[in-house]
Write a structure and sequence with these properties.
By secondary structure, this protein is α+β, with helices and mostly antiparallel strands. The chain is built from four helices and five strands. This is Hit.
């Protein structure tokens, strides 16, 4: 089901123009209007799902199954592509600006292509006991594995 106010749902319905890369009954892939780097593509499910926290396992399996095909096509489209970031942002604090689950496929051309991600090194803050405590909290909240 689509949300009448969601910009990605409007793109799926054809109410807002987009440059489509791929589309079938399950997903739509289109170029991001901002083009962080040339070829920056968004992959969205055709159902309106807010974020990863609301994404059913089967829908996730279907959605993510398209990533290799799209990544390979994007890379093959330009010999200058040296790598690719595949990103899924969830929640405003994690830079999700459109609340319809989507995957960014961002081709990387060099270390100077004006796109960056920073992973701070906080290893001095965590010994094995601290890591085990974090893991225990996660484990305590796991549900049944989807492929069990």
């Amino acid at each position: 089901m689509l949300d009448e106010n969601c910009i990605f749902c409007k793109i799926i319905r054809g109410e807002i123009p987009s440059v489509t890369v791929f589309e079938d009954d399950h997903v739509k892939a289109f170029l991001d209007i901002s083009q962080a780097t040339p070829g920056h593509t968004l992959l969205v499910p055709k159902d309106h799902i807010e974020d990863i926290f609301h994404l059913p396992a089967q829908t996730a399996a279907t959605l993510f199954s398209y990533v290799p095909m799209l990544a390979q096509a994007i890379k093959a489209s330009n010999p200058g592509i040296e790598g690719m970031n595949i990103i899924n942002n969830n929640g405003e604090v994690a830079y999700q600006s459109v609340h319809h689950v989507h995957i960014h496929l961002i081709p990387r051309y060099s270390a100077q292509d004006d796109f960056s991600i920073h992973f701070g090194n906080h290893s001095d803050m965590y010994d094995t006991a601290a890591l085990e405590k974090v893991a225990a909290g996660i484990k305590a909240n796991l549900k049944e594995a989807p492929h069990a």
